[in-house]
Amino acid sequence: MAAYSRSPLLLLLFSSVFLCGFGSVLGLKAASGPAEPPNPPVLRPADPPAKDAPAAAAAGASQPRRATGWKLSEEEACREDLTRLCPKHTWTNNLAVLECLQDRREESEIAPDCNHLLWNYKLNLTTDPKFESVATEVCKSTIAEDVHSQGEVIACLEKALVREAEQQDGVRPIKEECQKAILRVAELSSDDFHLDRHLYFSCRDDRERFCQNTQAGEGKVYKCLFNHKFEEAMSEKCRDALTTRQKLISQDYRVSYSLAKACKLDLRKQRCSLDTNLPRAREARLSYLLLCLEAAVHRGRPVSGECQGEMLDYRRMLMEDFSLSPEIVLHCRTEIEAHCSGLHRKGRTLHCLMRIGRGDRSTAVDSVCQSALQTLIQSADPGADYRIDRALNEACESVIQTACKHIRNGDPMILSCLMEHLYTEKMVEDCEHRLLELQYFISRDWKLDPILFKKCQGDAARLCHTHGWNETSELMPPGAVFSCLYRHAYRTEEQGRRLSRDCKVEVQRILHQRALDVKLDPELQRRCMTDLGKWCSEKTDAGQELECLQDHLEDLVSACRDVVGNLTELESEDIQIDALLIRACEPVIQAHCHDVADNQIDTGDLMECLVQNKHQKEMNDKCAVGVTHFQLIQMKDFRFSYKFKMACKEDVLRLCPNIKKKVDVVICLSTTVRNDTLQDAREQRVSLKCRKQLRVEELEMSEDIRLEPELYDPCKSDISRLCPNVAFGNAQMIECLKEQKKQLSQRCHQRIFRLQEVEMSDPELDYQLMRVCKQMIKRFCTDADARNVLQCLKQNKNSELMDPKCKQMITKRQITQNTDYRLNPVLRKACRADIPKFCQSVLNKASEDSELEGQVIACLKLKYADQRLSPDCEDQIRVILQESALDYRLDPQLQMHCSDEISRLCAEEAAAQEQTGQVEECLKVNLLKIKQEGCKKEVLNMLKESKADIFVDPVLHTACALDLKHHCAAITPGRGRQMSCLMEALQDKRVRLQPECKKRLQDRIDMWSYAAKVAPAEGFSDLAVQVMTSPSKNYILFMIALSVCVLFLVGLLCGRITKRVTRELKDR
User: Fold this and answer.
1) Cα distance between residue 133 and residue 810, in whole Å
2) With contact defined as beta carbons under 8 Å apart, do 519 and 525 qualify?
């Protein structure tokens, strides 16, 4: 636009134009004084005015109202420029001529006289009859109230045009042709705010207050006022006028001079002209421009920096004031009035709508309003630059300055950085709310995350058949594209059609963000809305909703169950998707799992590492709870354990079809492996890689009773009754139930017995034993087979290097083993022939899943004393006798029958921390004081057993150790041989035994004599054993032999007599 210098003549012309123009429009005489003229535009060096310009301008503008047939093309000042620049068919239409010359003057210089004429014509434009006729219909109230208003007619028409766009379809008082003319007039006034008379008069003071140093022209004053629109000092009248102007821009971007000029070439280059085949939605014109150019930017096509700067301003403008989007005003009116009225704009009303939009069903917005919000977010594209969202920018400024200061201002990664710090100490509450409100809508269209789109647009086109940035497809809507991408992100090479590395990284980033809030996963929220309300209405903390859905997996509707199952399966492969868990477990990861965490490909290794280090000192409560929760969820479906699924899926399909629950699959495969092992099968049916992973799963399950539903469910009532304050982890609950075994309900007792039977045959599954004795296993049993670890520990139990806690744990397991031979696999195997042979009566009384309380072992002990066991069984019983002789607790029968006597007679010995046989010795010494027959019988059995092997009597063995070495070194232990050797040495006066040994031996002889009196032989075999082990064995045998001889002689004599009598009878 040409510039002008100050001139009294020009001011006079301006005044006359306005007086004349508005008087004509209103049909009234100008009764008032002259209107205030605008501040003259500043002179631009490029357009020096001609000397005779004022006169020419006056000639064109000061005339009384022109006749209706007057044409700009007939004016001498512009004829030459018109002929040179404008097509002939436009000459008859003044607006078309004005539009042509205004557009072309940037390319070609226009004569100064013509410039002045055009400027004055624009100023006087409201006198056009086409505006008058419409104004009398739609602006009656305004005109009647203020007959001398400056620019009110065109301002009223503009407001009416804006109002039409914000109302439901109905009667349109302004015809389409007139609407175009109104917009064209607004466009023609876009370069100089003086030309918008209503806005000029409304904002004179505000212009001086905020934009005093801003030169008029090129729309600069408009932009300055727009930027200060929400300042407290801004007058309400000016704010309203600016809002109307902005609404016109949203209908036609050309109403903004700076935007139209900056982006003119880019629009042409990117072919952003409106498609005439599409519906001409007026309110979509600015959004169409933004979408088209944003698509070009996102695709990496060149768009000038000046144009991008203008786009940024108008995107920020759309986010600041919801009223600039007619669709929002039209479709979200109810929600605004109900929930968001009275809010200061600055983007807060829009964020209020976004908050309602991401709420539950009770406060959810209408679907049409939701769609309008989504469209606005796409047009404004705040994901590309957080500064576009003023409410978010202000709320998160402190967080950005502290947590994201390393990222360039305006970089799209700022939003990702904020998401990474969600629910951390650095996050503030207001920022958290604004961030989640925005991310809710960004998550519903994959294109709104610019980094994701940049890295994945090729993969999306190749794998998901997507179109352009601002194009949608019914077959692949924006919300479904991300689902398609993440399905391909975790495919193996064998499955083919995988994502590129860069795209996969971005997909993982988005998954990590979505795990923070179920509402950020559109598919999950859509399918699980009902279940969230039904099961998880009280779970409002971060991450709780997804955990709740996983907990109720079996109760969910099928559609929700599928999507939760798929997400859980994905987490099992890459647990880093669960950002809250990873954040909680950061200390453990850094200390023990950093090598695994640094790998770009997880494949379940990180979770396995966390499980293995669940009880390290770095493990905090949040991490432990999270890891345990994921373990519990994994039990619902074997697919949720990625490593187990990949290792065993073929075996499961072949051996355990139709089984879904992980615990059932583990039991099925374990049973198969066990059967193949016991039957010495040539080839294991379960593959080697599956067997290895199966072992890992079994070990993990042994750590928490809740991971074994078959054990946990029957024992729930017992847990609450007997172990209410015991933690589940670290196998503590299982250990508590074992210790309270006698008080358990029948079903729980049976399950615990079966568990112990499995653990004794495979000690690696005994979590407490392996944990407490971990270092001792490394010290003593590195070469031992896994199934023989407990046996190895037992053999080294009394070593000086043995850890006391481990020794205590070993003793516990020995006590358990001695309650039932089935819990001692080594004994069971060694005595498999002896047990049914000698102890069948005991077996007949036994139930399948309850202990025999040491009855079978007690039976075998007696047969050991009788020296009737097979060699292998005898060796195992000797070990048991030796162990129980040192610790009375290892003899369940003795404990059961003698508990009262021990408390009465041997309390001090029983209280000793280290048991070395002192309780047994006390009972032997006090044999005569024992009142209970059952206890007396057990003590007598101990005496009987000690005669068979001196090792079974630790007190006697300790006292006679030197004598055994000197006098019985050549005697093989067992079958009472060494005891007989000592007894013979005692009777041999030539041999001098140690005093202590001699005393102990004499005591034992007295005890055995007493035992023989009070416990006569129950049968011939017992009698024979007593004779053979008696100190008077030779005398007894001599007397027995003598008796036999006497009987033989008597029989011989009687036989001869009877034979003679028989012969005499025959002779008769």
Assistant:
1) 105
2) yes
Distance (Å, rounded) from C-alpha 412 to C-alpha 397? 15
Are 612 and 599 a contacting pair, CB within 8 Å?
A: no
Residue 258 CB: number of other CB atoms within 10 A?
19
- The alpha carbon dihedral of 276, 279, 281, 282 has a sign of positive
Q: Which residue has the tokens 């309110």?
A: 283
- CA separation for the pair 921, 657 (Å, rounded): 60
Q: How far from chain centre, in Å, is Cα 81?
A: 70
Torsion-angle region of residue 384: left (phi > 0), alpha (psi -120 to 50) or beta? alpha
Q: Is 39 in contact with 194 (CB distance < 8 Å)?
A: yes
Q: Where are the alpha helices (DSSP H) in 332-366?
A: 333-339, 348-357
CB neighbours of 809 closer than 8 A, spacing ≥ 6? Answer: 768, 769, 772, 773
Residue 1032 exposure: Cα atoms within 13 Å on the Cβ side? 9
CB-CB neighbours of 387 under 10 Å: 17
| Average confidence (pLDDT) over 1020-1030 | 55
44: confidence class by pLDDT, cuts 50, 70, 90: very low
DSSP letter assigned to residue 949: -
- pLDDT single digits (tens) 682-713: 889 999 999 999 999 988 889 999 999 899 99
Distance CA 279, CA 120 (A): 36
**Residue closest to 521 by CA, chosen among 553, 489, 462, 480:** 480
Q: How far is CA 391 from CA 287, 330, 427, 792, in A?
A: 21, 22, 16, 69
HSE-CB for 765 with a 13 A CA cutoff: 19
H or E element in which residue 560 lies? helix 558-573
For residue 237, the one-letter residue type is K
Taking a C-beta distance cutoff of 8 angstroms, is the pair 99, 110 a contact?
A: no
Neighbours of 338 (CB within 10 A): 11
Q: Which H or E run includes 413?
A: helix 413-420
What lies within 8 Å, CB to CB, of 294 at 6+ separation is: 311, 381, 384, 469, 470
What residue has token string 């004022």?
54
193: Cβ–Cβ under 8 A, 6 or more apart, which residues? 199, 200, 203, 207, 216, 219, 221, 222, 225
DSSP summary character for residue 689:
H
Contacts 24+ apart (CB under 8 A), 492-499: 497/463, 499/456, 499/459, 499/463
Cα 659 from Cα 674, distance rounded (Å): 19
Whether the CB-CB separation of 423 and 516 falls below 8 Å is answered with yes
Alpha helices in 425-477 (DSSP H): 429-442, 450-463
Q: Is the pLDDT of residue 494 over 80?
A: no
**Which pair of structure tokens corresponds to residue 192?**
């100089």
Q: Which own/partner pairs from 518-524 qualify as long-range (CB within 8 Å, at least 24 positions apart)?
A: 518/545, 518/546, 518/549, 519/358, 519/436, 519/440, 520/436, 520/439, 520/440, 520/443, 521/443, 521/567, 522/443, 522/444, 522/479, 523/479, 523/480, 523/483, 523/563, 524/560, 524/563, 524/564, 524/567
How much is the pTM?
Answer: 0.70
